[in-house]
Amino acid sequence: MTVSVHNPDQYMASLRQIIAQGRKRVGLLVGAGAPAGICPSGGDKPLIPAVAGLTEMVMAALNATYGETLTALRAEIENSNIETILSRVRSLGGVIGTTKVHGLDGDGYKALSEAICMQIGKIVNQPLPEGPSPYTEFVTWISGTGREHPVEIFTTNYDLLFEQALERTRVPFFDGFTGSSEPFFDPSSVASNDLPARWTRMWKLHGSLGWAANTKGEVVRTGRADATHLVFPEHLKYDQTQKAPYAALFDRLRAFLMTPDTLLIATGFSFADAHISARIDECLAANPSASVFAFQFKPLEQEVYACDIAGRRANMSLYSPDRAMINGIAAPWMPGDLPTRDWGAIRATYWGIDDKSGQAQFQLGRFDRLARFFSSSRAAQYFPSSQPVAVATAATVADGGAPVEADASGQT
After folding, report:
1. What is the average pLDDT across 222-238?
2. Which of 67, 98, 102, 406 has an alpha carbon within 20 to 30 A of 345's alpha carbon?
């Protein structure tokens, strides 16, 4: 009997070649699952919690002062989290004036907005641990080869972990701001993207620690680690999302995906952000030569937002621990014969036994494992002439690839 399965060795052999060569235009899309997957040495709690954990921590911190108001707001919002709550708070602060809603008037909601941002800043303002980390390993990959195109990092996170990793390694990067006294955002430099390729691009799609509005209402980078200017464009009115820097950063994401032969690697990102997901979906439809490889932490059936796009766009490949969706076809993983004699050690970087389930599974949905896979991509790799399959597959997988037909024993 013949069944459809996906052989991880073929796809990872292709990806390994792509990221090692430095010739392809590569971007990273990093979500809240990235820092949430890192535990400081000796601890069992994440360095920075994901959105759900962040929500509970902020609510607990503000409960004494704003508990009744926040409880009432959460009851009104479907699938409430700190982002949707903050958006509702800001909306009320801008429209109700002296009228009170859930015990607060307009000025009260403006104060609540500031309090929420202050708490977010306290929670996500974490230093990058000393020594090796997934962030430093990604930077090792970025700086480890000459590049024809810069690596572009798009992130919804507010923390400064990537910035700290780049600075420790003395890797230059550009985040859209320029100046020294009060760095200002320069949309023309973001749009033109004409800095040298060795300058990494860092695009903070939802804002960042250290961003604030000056007396003219312009967003500047303060150099401090407070959080006063965080924004969630999918929940705000049209005119707010068109203001710099957010409009320019989302245009940069679109420009990247509309460029021929680009690859966007998603990690720690659930695709629940409707604004970003819609932009990715539109660009993949308009530019078939662009590809998105999404490395997801949860089983495939639970990655509903990512599956929605990957099921319609053949140029989006979705890799989950138990299954993959490639070319719109969902199928379980099944490794075949090793592509080369030396491939066993390489397979161990993306395939292994899960500690909880005891089952063998694909492991690059974990941010730390993906970072290690990238940083080790330039290690010696051999393809004997008797084993041409992995090399031949590289060109096809870069454009989406195809499912592998295997017999019931798993042999390709």
Report:
1. 58
2. 406
